[in-house]
Amino acid sequence: MIQEIARAKLNLALHVRHRRSDGYHALETLFAFVRDGDLLTLSDAETDRFAITGPFAATLQAESDNLVTRARDRFRLTFGDDRPCAILLDKRLPVASGIGGGSADAAAALRALATRAGVRHDDPDLLACANVLGSDVPACLLSRTAIGRGRGEDLVPVDGLGGVPALLVNPGVGVSTAAVFERWDGVDRGSIGSGDLLEVARSGRNDLEPPARSLAPAIDGVLAVLARQPRTHMVRMSGSGATCFALFEDAPACAAAAEAIRSAEPGWWCLETALI
Ligand code: C5P
């Protein structure tokens, strides 16, 4: 049995530079990952099986085409490993919420299958599988802080944010990534900075915030509540939303904010965690 955590991804900054001729958008983004995520378990089996459990299982089960089974099929095609397997996904993170979700699950499946087959996690063919599955899957395969360019797949790992307390908050609305990108206003507001990573993050933006907020006004409320919390380094939306996050100066401040938000907004999903 092999287990992999599909860690939640944050875009500490996400600068959209231009619309490409292939329909994707050229990005500059600072990816970071947190301790917590979905849990994927891979076991040998007589026939292929895929099951989803956990608090967000129901939303995903409705989808016929899951990124995890696509990752499994893509791995087989690439590496010729036809042994059947059982994959169990404990879905702990909200779906369609800007924190990786399906991309992280697909990447976790690739890592687990690679481990079983004796393939290195940095094998270029594994990275190629990730690339085909989605723009965020290569970053999730790496699951460490990195600057992403291109569609997000052109990655340069960076160090320096491990242990920073983070609070992730989702108001319970899903947003379509494609719809948010479609509403981007086309204005290039410039590249992300360089140097101290926290400063790069703080001085950056998420250019998808305005279009996401117009599609899901509940995001306004989440950002406002996070902005009122004491001792934050920064508050921002992640990816195409609707999950927003705050980074804190210390863990007690993060815990206090989590408690305040949970009691004020019991319907919101709230994860108290830390960057890795
Ligand atoms: O790559 P992925 O399938 O995850 O992307 C989902 C959608 O998000 C794409 O179909 C595209 O509309 C949009 N997207 C984009 N530019 C990116 C990444 C995603 O326009 N860099």
UniProtKB/TrEMBL annotation:
<comment type="function">
    <text>Catalyzes the phosphorylation of the position 2 hydroxy group of 4-diphosphocytidyl-2C-methyl-D-erythritol.</text>
</comment>
<dbReference type="InterPro" id="IPR014721">
    <property type="entry name" value="Ribsml_uS5_D2-typ_fold_subgr"/>
</dbReference>
<feature type="active site">
    <location>
        <position position="9"/>
    </location>
</feature>
<feature type="binding site">
    <location>
        <begin position="94"/>
        <end position="104"/>
    </location>
    <ligand>
        <name>ATP</name>
    </ligand>
</feature>
<dbReference type="Pfam" id="PF00288">
    <property type="entry name" value="GHMP_kinases_N"/>
</dbReference>
<keyword id="KW-0067">ATP-binding</keyword>
<dbReference type="GO" id="GO:0050515">
    <property type="term" value="F:4-(cytidine 5'-diphospho)-2-C-methyl-D-erythritol kinase activity"/>
</dbReference>
<dbReference type="InterPro" id="IPR004424">
    <property type="entry name" value="IspE"/>
</dbReference>
<keyword id="KW-0808">Transferase</keyword>
<dbReference type="GO" id="GO:0019288">
    <property type="term" value="P:isopentenyl diphosphate biosynthetic process, methylerythritol 4-phosphate pathway"/>
</dbReference>
<comment type="similarity">
    <text>Belongs to the GHMP kinase family. IspE subfamily.</text>
</comment>
<comment type="pathway">
    <text>Isoprenoid biosynthesis; isopentenyl diphosphate biosynthesis via DXP pathway; isopentenyl diphosphate from 1-deoxy-D-xylulose 5-phosphate: step 3/6.</text>
</comment>
<dbReference type="GO" id="GO:0005524">
    <property type="term" value="F:ATP binding"/>
</dbReference>
<keyword id="KW-0414">Isoprene biosynthesis</keyword>
<dbReference type="InterPro" id="IPR036554">
    <property type="entry name" value="GHMP_kinase_C_sf"/>
</dbReference>
<dbReference type="InterPro" id="IPR013750">
    <property type="entry name" value="GHMP_kinase_C_dom"/>
</dbReference>
<dbReference type="Pfam" id="PF08544">
    <property type="entry name" value="GHMP_kinases_C"/>
</dbReference>
<dbReference type="InterPro" id="IPR006204">
    <property type="entry name" value="GHMP_kinase_N_dom"/>
</dbReference>
<dbReference type="InterPro" id="IPR020568">
    <property type="entry name" value="Ribosomal_Su5_D2-typ_SF"/>
</dbReference>
<keyword id="KW-0418">Kinase</keyword>
<keyword id="KW-0547">Nucleotide-binding</keyword>
<feature type="domain" description="GHMP kinase N-terminal">
    <location>
        <begin position="66"/>
        <end position="143"/>
    </location>
</feature>
<protein>
    <recommendedName>
        <fullName>4-diphosphocytidyl-2-C-methyl-D-erythritol kinase</fullName>
        <ecNumber>2.7.1.148</ecNumber>
    </recommendedName>
</protein>
<dbReference type="GO" id="GO:0016114">
    <property type="term" value="P:terpenoid biosynthetic process"/>
</dbReference>
<feature type="active site">
    <location>
        <position position="136"/>
    </location>
</feature>
<feature type="domain" description="GHMP kinase C-terminal">
    <location>
        <begin position="201"/>
        <end position="263"/>
    </location>
</feature>
